[in-house]
């Protein structure tokens, strides 16, 4: 009897041991943050987790069918639809409402253009919160710094995108006005975080700072699907141009033009470089694969009549692109009528790889744009060592596009902006290029010119965000 | 902790006992009523464990010390105390106890007498569950039996889930199921269906093995189960053997079943359908070609336009363009799909034992053919319950269930996901063209019968190993083991440990043959899903009982640990080279995945019960639970209860009131909890399943919440129990259950990187009154009539939501969560009927603020359109017995609730689904044809883009109903005849369930899950049974 009691008592005592372990359980298909990233290899995968969200945003719910996208399609189409050079044929209301400037504070568009970049910035900040504690073995320092640089560069890019979507362009606004910018997300936030808007000045300073930090860390090697030093420098040039900091814009652009490994497309290869991975101008493109793309909300599906057909050429866009039959760019257009209600002229920049319209790597920045930045910055009075005259950059592009082209000796701002429309159509620039230069765009859907100060030139802050943070000021007119 | 251990040790060691000199006594115990000997009566020396039980002839012998008192007790009889004198033979008669007053009840971690129980609990014995043996699961048998308990069958498919709720709805997002505890071990329950195929693991239990079920309702009863008790607890006790002659029973039942309500899901006949189609085509012309439907349309009331529309409707009616074919039959497809089901059940058991060892063993086979050909359920079970008393202080036992179930069926949509699956049986009743015959004249299947991509319902519903089969099957294996040891260390102290191992493995196989409707695109698809759950449980409980004079004290202290592991393997194959071999190996691999999740719980419990002179009772309990599902800061939670009762009938001033058998008032207050469903909701997590280009990609998917805690409920309960004239007992209770810290998905700023996180925010209040009455109306030697009645009011009001904001949930936001409103409130545009002038549907533009009408549903604002939770419900059972005959019938009722008729939305499509769906029979001669018609259904408009058929209050229907849930007539053969046949008891019975229903809306089955969502599902059935039960 006593023996038994002793055994029982001992058994009890043993049971109470290991209480803590017993109550620590974790899943088999996910890891807590602290265990997820423990090496530079893990860090690389985590950075990939940011890139993949730019093309396939699914929140890890195992469901690839969320009908919205960022660089995969919606963001690329946005500026061209609002800019009026692209327009919808049929409307499935996937992205076509942008052409009609249809977006309220409770619309999915406002929400998703906010949700995806900020969620990805959240992923970046989560990684950055532990990146300094990571155990970096010798020999891995360069890879580690490059990955860290990518995070800063991407964070800047996404803030820049959100700023263009949700705040006025710097050229059209008082940079120091309260709430003129967007919320800056530069750390890991608690779940009850209530964001507020910075000024435009603070916003763009933050963007430039992150880009500069990134430049100090990034590799200059070509790295397909990843942002490198040159792409970051090109983006920095773009940001400076938006801020009319012409010297800095020109100097950054000139560095890329002089020193980067990229080369302009030529008349001979211009029709073949689309739908190809890692073409010669591509400084930063985002990888698409059959398993990870924006599927029906990808730019390829928007820009073909066999897809949604919501991004065909508008009349003005078609006329502009085809005004010179010697321009190879006029041949990158086709009449498509796979479905009668979607017939129209479509760009062939997104033909899809392997016959799959979902597979087009969206290009974030490519060399032609850098030439165009340099030309514009120079024309606006920018100076930088090694820079050429504005017309030199335009001539370089045109030589490689127009058969029998003879150089011009001078260009105007309109020449440069027209060249941008022709070269960068369907790549997500048009409306901002016009507005930041104080010009209007013509919207065929609304049948009127749209100025930068039209309240719906920018998106409303999603209502769910202003509900969560009452101090988050809504844009005027919403 | 160490202190507690020392205390326990001290209790173990501190006391020893000495027995005085003994002498042998013997005797017989008989029932006062008929003087028959009673086997199994416990004969114990008062205040000790020394004792025995009577044998089959009611005889006992025992060695007792002199000057002690013997206590004779037996369930259902009044105990008797007899002092031991010099006499050595004691013949004792026991009187029947007034039913309900002092039965022994299984309660949390022990048993108690009903009279001394201060909480709210109700026991249902197996014999009260007779007649409902077709119920494939235990929960469904409780319908209408217990106040405060709502049981509903979700579908009529055999093996499908039931739903049980105790005292309303305790949660918004976490589980609302009660905790099931079988023989002292918490049991895994739940639905393990897939793709809308409902399947419940409770169906692995054999209801025949159940001896009694106790429902624990208030905190005093349930708080000992702490973090899992907020939705109440169902304690199941299985049968055990009794000392004496071995008893064998054989029981078999046969039965047939049909849909419970004939009018449910009837469709239009061929003539009416063609007429409707014609009108819908006229409508389509007036919508698309020459607008003339609405008053503002140019062609409105223009006879010439109407003439052209009518001509259009007559154009080429049989070129198949509109899904209209040359009528060649008038087929009732509902009758083709829903047939008469059959069921059979065989049960064999043996029980018995000696004063040392007793056993109960059973084997059972249950087989049900559902009302849809090819849907069936089979269950094989075997059970052995064994216990052995090795000496005065040590008793141990094992209880083992092995069970295997096989369930076959079709892809209904019991999961409440949006959409109607073309291949689901109910859908096919309406997508088959009523003008088409089932078979061609040559006897072959008419391949042109369907309006959807299903060519003929029987192509799918008659699985024959054909290339068009589409089948679902679930094979399940379960082993439920329970081992227990009971040590009576001292007369006042016993120690119990119980170990449970619950293993359940479910294999779901879904087969879409290569030429089947859904399988064609895959060229055959096989999906194999394996779910394995393993639950391990160990508990150690010390039980101290001591009576000091009139003070009676019981203390319970214990420790419990539980581990739950859940493993899934999912795999699938496509591109089958043959339809004849569905196994995955015969196709090309498509997907594969596996996952394991585990959750652990560790608990300390304590319970004190005290009563003074069986008059004043006080009880308190405490439980401390640690769960791996919670955030590190809130991992441990403490739940407690305090309760008291006063038995006024024991007071001197009432003890002379002969008419009053018992009068007790009681009150309790305490806390319970509910754990999050998600095992890992508190962890910040990275997902590893993604990729970027050729490389892996990982990213954060969930923020951590170290504060994540249980949902807590604060329960108050007042009640009284009254027994009068030895005829009537009644229990009346009021409960108020406040649930706080409900888990809600709170929206986060996207700057955090996340969309939502689980936080403990919401609040709910459930309250209600429960009344139970038991009356013995007539009781003579030959005739007896008893009535049991119960009544429950329900109210479940949302008190607090994140930021106080309304939350819309469900399909298209049709459910509203709003502070101050009932949970499961419908929120839809309000239907304003059909305009008699033009036949168009009308809606209230803004029902909360004006009476203005609109023709356009899209413009109509939603408003509250009733709630799913009923106001009150209950049941009434009458049992009459005469000379071996016994008739018992149970009516259940429910009033004040609503359902959302999702299938009805398809079957009242107003022409929108012209050419793909038939219409409900109640639309026959009930649609608008000409000005002045007062009808329920608008003018049909083919493919109407304005969608008057979309959800509105038109689809919210009352669930008020009264149902003859069960009626059983049985005859027990006279003993004299039976004994000549060398048997103890022979009983014959016929019974039926759901055989009569009154429903306010008789075209829809009113029994529905508590959220009121009528799914696209097989309607529940009525059953007729014949059975025989033999004991020998």
TrEMBL record, chain A:
Give the record's family classification: Belongs to the SusD family.
Q: What is this protein called?
A: RagB/SusD family nutrient uptake outer membrane protein
Q: What region holds the SusD-like N-terminal domain?
A: 107-241
Where in or outside the cell it occurs: the entry states:
Cell outer membrane
Q: Cellular component GO terms, alphabetically?
A: cell outer membrane
Q: What is its main location?
A: membrane
UniProt domain RagB/SusD: residue ranges: 343-478
Question: Which organism's genome codes for this protein?
Answer: Maribellus luteus
What Pfam families does its record include? SusD-like_3, SusD_RagB
UniProt signal peptide: 1-18
- Positions in coiled-coil regions: none
This protein's UniProt keywords: Cell outer membrane, Membrane, Signal
UniProtKB/TrEMBL annotation, chain B:
According to the record, the segments passing through the membrane are: none
Query: Sorted alphabetically, which SUPFAM superfamilies does this protein's record hold?
Result: Carboxypeptidase regulatory domain-like, Porins
Residue span(s) of domain TonB-dependent receptor plug: 116-233
What subcellular compartments does it reside in? Cell outer membrane
Identify the domain of life. Bacteria
Which segment of the chain is annotated as a signal peptide? 1-20
- GO CC: one term? cell outer membrane
- List the InterPro entries: Beta-barrel_TonB, Beta-barrel_TonB_sf, CarboxyPept-like_regulatory, Plug_dom, Plug_dom_sf, TonB-dep_OMP_SusC/RagA, TonB-dep_OMP_SusC/RagA_CS, TonB-dep_rcpt-like
Q: How does this chain sit within the bilayer?
A: Multi-pass membrane protein
Its predominant location is membrane
Q: Which residues form a coiled coil?
A: none
Name assigned to this protein: TonB-dependent receptor
Similarity comment: Belongs to the TonB-dependent receptor family.
- The answer to whether keyword Signal applies is yes
Which species does this protein come from? Answer: Maribellus luteus
